[in-house]
Amino acid sequence: MNAPDRYERFVVPEGTKKVSYDRDTKIINAASFTIEREDHTVGNVLRMQLHKDPNVLFAGYKLPHPLQYKILVRIHTTSQSSPMQAYNQAINDLDKELSHLKSVFEDEVRRHSRDF
Amino acid sequence: MAVPDEDDTSKRIPSPVSMKSLAAPVKSAVDKYQLLPEFLKVRGLVKQHLDSFNYFINCEIKKIIHAKDNERIVSDINPKIYLKFLDIYVESPSVEEDHIREPLIPQRCRLSDTTYAAPVKVDIEYTRGNPIQTEIKKGHVIANMPIMLRSRRCVLYGMDDDELARLGECPLDPGGYFIVKGTEKVLMIQEQLSKNRIIIDTDKKGRVSASVTSSTHERKSKTVIVMEKERIYLQLNQFTKLIPIMVIMKAMGMESDQEVVQMVGRDPRYSGLLLPSIQECASERIYTQYQALEFLEKKVVKSRFTNQKVHQGDFYPKCIYVGVMLRRMLEAILNADTIDDKDYVGNKRLELSGQLISLLFEDLFKTMSSAAKKSIDEALTKASRSSSMDISLHLKKDWITHGLERAISTGNWDVKRFKMNRKGMTQVVSRLSFIAALGHMTRIQPQFEKSRKVSGPRALQPSQWGMLCPCDTPEGEACGLVKNLALMTHVTTDEEESPLITLCYSLGVEDMSLLSAEELHSVNSYLVMFNGLILGKHRLPQRFANGMRKLRRAGKIGEFVSVFVNEKQRCVYLASDGGRVCRPLVIADKGVSRIKEHHMKELRDGARVFDDFLREGLIEYLDVNEENNALIALYEGEADSKTTHIEIEPFTILGVCAGLIPYPHHNQSPRNTYQLCRMDTLLYLLVYPQRPLLTTKSIELVGYDKLGAGQNATVAVMSYSGYDIEDAIVMNKSSLDRGFGRCIVMKKVSAVKQAYDRIIMPKMSSGKGGLDSHMQILDTDGIASPGEIVRPLDILINKQSATVSRDQLISHKVLPDSAYKFTPVKHKGTEGETTVVDRVALFTDKDQNMVIKFMIRHTRRPEVGDKFSSRHGQKGVCGTIVQQEDFPFSERGICPDLIMNPHGFPSRMTIGKMIELLGGKAGVSCGRFHYGSAFGEPSGHADRVEVIRYHRVSSPSVYIHGTYLLPKAKTYGLRLGEMERDCLIAYGASMLIFERLMISSDPFKAQVCRKCGLLGYYHHSLKTGFCSMCKSGENVSTMKLPYACKLLFQELQAMNIVPRLQLTEH
Amino acid sequence: MEGISYQRFPKVKIREMKDDYLKFELRETDASMANALRRVMLAEVPTLAIDLVEIEVNSTVLNDEFIAHRLGLIPLTSDRAMSMRFSRDCDACDGDGQCEFCSVEFTLNVRCTSDHTLDVTSTDLRSSDPTICCPVDVAARATAALDPNSAYDPSEQRGIIIVKLRRGQELRLRAIARKGIGKDHAKWSPAATVTFMYEPDIHINEDLMETLTLEEKRSWVESSPTKVFDIDPNTQQVVVVDPEAYTYDDEVIKKAEAMGKPGLVDINAKEDSFIFTVESTGAIKASQLVINAIEILRQKLDAVRLSLDTEECDEQFGELGAHLRGSAV
Question: What UniProt keywords apply to this chain's record, in alphabetical order (chain B) (predicted)?
């Protein structure tokens, strides 16, 4: 009856930012990113990619509540980097990996359909 | 066929036993399952109701009008004026409209809130006119009687599926209920103590008493003989006080004390007990019949008791009856074992709708007659009679019609004539699911009040086996009192007595009136009782019983006549009365089943029906008493030479509802019971009902597979997300999207258009163009049309009521608009639900007003908080709904529909559910339906586990667990239960938990071995703890733990599970 | 702000490919990537599905909502879905889903006039533009008609049943298909099955295995519920016949322990190799589904990039921020 509408799950409400940044006030080089209307799909790839970065001391994400359609990504880096830098880096790397994957996959599909 | 067979066997008996056993055919278990569907085909699931009602309509009702007091209505003023009932018959249901009678169909009654009733017609002979002439009038309607659906008089009787469907009836609906004022009412089966039987019991004060409730068409009375202060008294309603028994005997002409003693038996112990009573009588100076009657005169009217018939004031049979009662009672005083068990099913009678209606009808009929008489007398006293007198016009049919209708619709059976005042006799048929409705029809209501805290009637009676379902009983106050019939139970109806009595005499029963008191209890013969009546004696009781049974098997006497030889009481009981429960069993001769494979083959080929089995003496009905004379083998293979009968199918001990649970014998028994109560929680109209993958044979018999009320789900048993605690389930959103668990909820809205109302077309409002937003669904006739989506507060009927007075309504044909006030019918719904008008029905009610009925439908998909249940009493609410991508998946890509928490299993012990899961998966994998019937598979280890579990239940833990008390009141205290404990844990009040569950509950000092972690004991001679595992006292520490906890460890050890405690310094 | 890249270069090998079925290996990436792809395929690759139904006549046994729900679940060909607009952000039609950019209209008009029960199926749905969107079985029939070699047998295909009609019953409706994603409603999910498994790495301890008798070997091999191992009839040695049949059920390991031979076999999941199985509903080709999923995931990641103003906002901390970050700038 009072269930949220289905589109609430993936439509960013007007006036809210997709990603908001929250610097930690106590720890330097630590910050959390609130990403609206995303879930484990983005959260987990991002976290795993961040783990690859040696400058990242901590990277984690959580889904605060099943009815709050947002994730919190928390990053803590060394002084060599910054959370924002690491975040951008991770996204860039993932983007490149995906475009690579896409081309590899398309090649394979082409090769496969030619062979068979 | 059967009789020669019988002879063959009897001829073979003399042959040497060894030879016979060699010649006996190899025992092969014949699959008798096929008999069940056949049985149900002829009997149906609610046959007991139908039989009983049919019996009433065909026989009982005739008996009522032909009873001496009822047959004639004679005027007191002019005895020549009379009315005599010649015949009575019930027609098919019909309704009279504008003086035209037309047949009535049930569906119409349901829709138009009328009663499905048929006219009851009588043929009467009466006097009329002046001078008086007798006339005969046929077909005079005296009442409209509600008719049971599918009974002999119902229009649906004997119809096939197509015809039923055409009348708007579900072919699977069993019938057996009434439709009164549009609601379906079922008359609950009433459980009572037997009538006309001697019951020996102890009363509240611990006195032994013998009581007989006698009931005939003329009167009903209760006679009790009690022992008080060593003297024996008789208690009867007609007398204000207790009457000494000897006075009664003398009053009935038994003046000699010796005769009385002889009648009771010459055993000195009995006469010793009688002595004080004899003395008392003597001290009252009562020696003759006349003195005794004088004594009674003071107390009240003439004595008349027990159901023994009196011919011309011959009280001898009654004396004998009292003698037998006395003897049974004295026997019980000497030997407490002979006290009757009131809860024994054989001492119970079930009152069905026919009997109940007949009671009511009789009462109303008498009321009607006396009212008619009164009005005749009144008419006769009037000086001037212009028209000639017609008595038949004084029979008002409304008496019976309204009386019956009122009783059935309110459930109050108020029969003053029989001092009957019962409430809640009828219930609305629960239509939540097919099974709920069926289960409702087999339910048995007790006569006792439910609040009594007695365990006796609630306990499972061994005699219930096969007759009443052992599982199906509600929880709470009615637990064990409300029962259900088992699958094959039949409830008997009355049978004609006189031919049977004659038969008994011709089979060698010596008439009681020819016997002297001395002979009554002679050692070499048995008393023969027929329906509680003492017929006489027989010297060869076993032979007599066998003879009767042979006749019954041959079909010469009714199949439900029961013959029971009671060796203890030295009696042969014959019964043909109604209300006994009985069930069919296969007859076996010396352990060899009479049903052979070729019989079953003929049955499968359709060359044979169930009744053929009965007629040929292969199967017979046994009632609870006669079962005591039989040795019944559960399976054919288990039969030995002493076996007399074989069960048809073991699972028939369960009722209709219990049969739906797969593998019930693997579950902890209360779980099965819970499930049965649960059937009706959340079932409306499932959008995609499915057949259970794992069926039981009962399901097929009942037709549940055709009317599914559930869905097969892919279930993962795992903990997931934390929204699944306390039995909550996690559901897959994609499954819900695809229609899993979707159901349609139907709601009825009805409104009456009174004479001064009008329904008008919505007017276009001049303002903001178009209609009022709440009027958009209205059709041109001012009524919402089907298929429209309704939102809350939308107007369904645009109705207006006149505000002016009645006079003006009559004078003005058309009223101005101003005289009307807007009284619309609005839809009350909740926001967010999309409801649709499904159907609109218009009809006129009995006051000729227009009634408008809406069916409003709402499709709802499961939401968080909805309750779901499996077939094992494992209910749970939906804790959260999760996207499919967040759900677990297997490497084969299978994604479950819902996730259940595994913590639901250990404490519930529903092994059957696990087996169902396995069986269901096997069914999916090989694409076949599987059976999960009770006792369907050979028993394996599961049964052995069960034995251990019973030990646990009987252990003292039961008492100890209850001792966690809240400090609220010191005297009684409230239990700190599991849920309260959960709250404390969640809150984190650990010290409070510690205090409640340990210190103020059951602290226990335990010796724990630090090395092996097991419990030791305190060795008194060594003055130290000792570990019997390590055989040393070195590493033993003393610690406190709740006794219940220690007990749990020990019980676990008894089950081969080792709980080890690891101790650390703190 | 240029850092070193930690990019991976995953490898793909297709094992089996049909229109609606795809089995491939994905290597040299981690589970998060594999899982993200799976999740996107299930829930976020857009397709078309009937979303709005206007019923004109319905005298069937099923009620309106029921039929609407069934219509919604019919898979429609959605090759163009990626380039179409969501009706909620369609400018051309004000978001009411009635324009060519975001919707396709269907009509259904069936009436039973014979005494036989008439099945109303997806083939009765008339699309306003069959080239863009039509029920998948209709599309399959159309392509089969063009290709004489196809194995498609139209007699076996009866279409997806919507409702059955008896004489005199009629169903007339108008339906609008829109673009959507599985997260919204499962009817928009293009995937019937998307699953992956870690490639198992099975090592049999040959020395220990040789200590077993043939009988023991046989019972050990049979302890696995799936056929992973077999005994070579010639050498009588235990061999791995199908490692991928292994379901990580640990039965063989438990059996080995029960036989008193722990360590008989060593099974590990390869953390960076996945075997994917993708089955499509027919709305999109399975291979296209994977490609779309990769594309969607890229778009998603692109969307979560920090917008400029966020970065600026961080810069407002100015020197303090720069100071704290040290000399990395």
Answer: DNA-directed RNA polymerase, Metal-binding, Nucleotidyltransferase, Transcription, Transferase, Zinc, Zinc-finger
